[in-house]
Amino acid sequence: PKAAMAFAGKYEFEGDENYDAFVQKIGLPSDKVEMGRNCKIVTEVVQNGNDFTWTQHFPGGRTTTNTFTVGQEADMETMGGKKFKATVKMEDGKLVADFPNYRHTAEICGGKLVEISTSSGVVYKRTSKKIA
């Protein structure tokens, strides 16, 4: 398997596409929808080989952290705060996770963190620029 790309760093939300259509599709509650819209989320990734700690810092001090090892089942939390188990895989240098109602991929592209979530044909893309 291809080694993981260097994901480690801090990334600040820069822009997204299809947010509203996607959150409707996955049934995100309306208060969470507003909170997440154009939200300056800072994503902090600590990587040690295949071990990752993936933290999202929301304005106002709330954080969500997922810790996982590529290829092993881990306890994860969704955008909406639901807990579930998932196995994160590495495919062509992208991290891929199947959430309960969407598939999520993350890759480093041109120094930016590009995350794509797909649910029943709706594709949500979020781009974050590296700040540290």
UniProtKB/TrEMBL annotation:
Presence of keyword Cytoplasm: yes
User: GO: which molecular function terms?
Assistant: lipid binding
Cytosolic fatty-acid binding proteins domain residues are 9-26
Question: Keywords, A to Z?
Answer: Cytoplasm, Lipid-binding, Transport
Task: Tell me if Repeat is a UniProt keyword of this record.
Answer: no
Protein family (similarity comment): Belongs to the calycin superfamily. Fatty-acid binding protein (FABP) family.
Identification of the protein by name: FABP6 protein
What organism does the UniProt record list as the source? Motacilla alba (White wagtail)
Q: Which gene encodes it?
A: Fabp6
